[in-house]
Design brief:
Strand order of the largest sheet: 1-2-3-4
Number of domains: 1
CATH class: Alpha Beta
Helix content: 10-25%
CATH topology: Nuclear Transport Factor 2, Chain: A
CATH architecture: Roll
Radius of gyration: 16 Å
Distance between the termini: 43 Å
Order of helices and strands: HHHEEEE
Number of helices: 3
Largest sheet: 4 strands, antiparallel
Length: about 140
């Protein structure tokens, strides 16, 4: 459709002027090119994982979940509508460990609203054995608040 603006990224990230980033310039580059373009930091990974929940991209969610805590599969609850994400804090513990505190809001198919407040832990490591693998961030686990 002519004149239609691109959709803003579901994660809510904004540019320096405060304008919402579009999906392709934000989380889309990680979700749509997972094999070659890893998220550069834990906050970007957490935001892209939120976007993957919004878009029901289980392959991305499982691929960015650390193997030591990754479930065998993911099921999405039918009728869930994601309402927004607020990143409260991003703290790098060292070059390969970080925490991100966030609140994600959604509404289930009955209309009940839910807030997920979590402090998530992330680890950065090679994506496979040996030299030459891509070093990427993985979601490890989290504590709900």
């Amino acid at each position: 459709m002519p004149g239609r603006l691109p959709d803003p990224c579901p994660c809510g990230r904004r540019d320096r002027r405060g304008a919402p980033l579009v999906y392709a310039d934000c989380c889309g580059r990680y979700l749509d090119d997972f094999e070659r373009t890893p998220a550069p930091d834990a906050e970007s990974l957490m935001r892209s994982r939120y976007t993957a929940f919004v878009r029901e991209r289980s392959g991305y969610l499982l691929g960015t979940w650390h193997p030591s805590t990754r479930p065998s599969h993911l099921d999405f609850e039918p009728g869930v509508r994601w309402l927004g994400l607020e990143v409260r804090a991003h703290r790098a513990e060292d070059a390969d460990h970080a925490e991100v505190e966030f609140i994600a809001r959604h509404r289930d198919r009955s209309g009940a609203a839910t807030r997920l407040h979590e402090r998530s832990r992330f680890v950065r490591e090679p994506d496979g054995p040996g030299e030459g693998g891509i070093v990427r961030w993985y979601y490890l686990d989290g504590d709900q608040r």
